[in-house]
Amino acid sequence: MAGTEREPAGVLDARFSSPGAQPVPWTTARAALAAAEVYWLTTVRDEGRPHVTPLIGVWRDDALYFCTGPDEQKARNLARSRHCALTTGGNRLGEGLDLVVEGAARQVADEARLRFLASCYREKYGSAWHFEVRDGAFLGDGGRALVFEVRPEKVLGFAKGEPFGQTRWRL
To answer: In whole angstroms, what is the distance from residue 145 CA to residue 67 CA?
Structure first.
């Protein structure tokens, strides 16, 4: 599936951008999504309160993938509502690119795909993140982990520094 990545056009929102700012190219945003080590996942609890937690993940074939234990709050929230957001970026105000990925999480159970994703985790994070695949899930030191795919519906990019700007991509 490599090489199937789409190239959506970025639209600059002038209300939140400095004069002369240009949209961030999708290739730049995609590279930042792939390179990020930590993502923040936002889901919604059954009573409507947000739940936000950091996690690791991988970007492959136009989607972000992450895993979580079946009894963890994020898994329970996603069982009720698949809508979520994943964010990544930096804590520096004057530099970098912050990204917000909005979409719906779908559980991945195909074992061939899971084996591929397990190799992606190992490649990105090293041997400490080694997963076996069994019964439609990852198995690791922390036990069984469900794997979720989020295909972005919308991505927002916040370029910081000068010029600063907000770019939106629809996928």
So the answer is: 6
Inter-residue contact 1 to 65 (CB < 8 Å): no
Count other Cβ atoms within 10 Å, centred on residue 95.
Answer: 11
DSSP code string of 115-153:
HHHHHHHHHHH-GGG--EEETTEEEETTEEEEEEEEEEE
pLDDT digits (tens, 9 = 90+) for 71-119: 999 999 999 999 999 999 999 999 999 999 999 999 999 999 999 999 9
- Cα separation, 169 vs 22, whole angstroms: 13
> In the numeric block, which tokens belong to residue 160?
């910081």
* Torsional class of 79: left (φ above 0), alpha (ψ -120 to 50), beta (otherwise): alpha
